[in-house]
Amino acid sequence: MCIAGGAIPGLIVNQSHADAGVVRPALKSIPAHDHIFFEGDNRDSIYVVESGWVKLYRTLVDGQRQIVGFANTGSVLGLESDVEYSNGCEAITAVQVRAIPIGRVAEICMRDGKLAGQLLRQVGRQLGAAQAQLAAIGAQSAEQKLANFLLTISDLCDIQPDDSFDLPMRRGDMAEFLGLRLETISRKMSEFQRRGWISMTSLYHCRLQRRDILEELAAGGQLESIHACAS
Fold it and tell me: 14 and 107: one domain?
């Protein structure tokens, strides 16, 4: 559903890399709500997220924006594009990234087979995430989409021992990504809290109190039957 990342150890330059002339890309800080790149910009670099969260969006024919994914630490941005960036990329928290010039990607991969393998795995993960999102939009109920989303984000976040984590995105971003109305997301979040499946200690801090039920919902369970069994 979301674009899962994963650390890329090939970018951590050791002495052998330095001797081979491979220089670690400089770290760049991006404030929340600033763009890393815009849709249609010349694709001159790919970006590795070192910390924080971003959202990827595409502009539709009618001028509206559609969020197509979220990415966090370890994700590689810009792999899905060719000459121009197909998506816009906006920071939703403060973000740190490393930019790898497109002209150097092949050279770096030739020198470092591990990095090449990591980039291939990133492409596979993003393709799988895109396919899962297509399936979810057409087949899942609002409850199933939300359960799947919360589980996915919790798995990508620094989850606390009490199964709590910070939701980095706004409700409107969640609704746009899941193909639901903002009112539906707000109503379903309230319903999940009322049923005791989650608790929100603040607008952005969520605790999964019944992960088992959310997992059953995400796997295709129906709200009515789950509620009857839980009662």
Answer: yes
Q: Is residue 1 part of a domain?
A: no
Helix, strand, coil percentages for the chain (3-state, nearest 5): 40, 25, 35
Judged against a pLDDT cut of 60, whether residue 16 lies above it is answered with no
CA 166 to the chain's CA centroid: 14
CATH number at residue 167: 1.10.10.10
Say which residue the tokens 């021992």 belong to.
Answer: 161
The DSSP result for 13-76, as a single string, is --HHHHHTT-PPPPEEEE-TT-EEE-TTSB--EEEEEEES-EEEEEE-TTS-EEEEEEE-TT-E
Does residue 215 share a domain with residue 168? Answer: yes
Nearest to 68 by CA among 131, 154, 156: 131
Q: Residues 53, 109: contact at Cβ < 8 Å? A: no
Residue pLDDT, tens place only, 93-129: 999 999 989 888 888 778 877 777 777 877 777 777 7
Predicted pLDDT at 34: 98
Domain co-membership, 67 together with 127: yes
Residues 206 and 102 in one domain: no
CA-CA distance, 108 to 201, in Å (whole number)?
45
- How many of the other CB atoms lie within 10 Å of CB of 173? 19
Total-model pTM: 0.81
Q: Span 182-202, mean pLDDT?
A: 95
Under DSSP, is residue 97 helix (H, G, I), strand (E, B) or coil?
Answer: strand
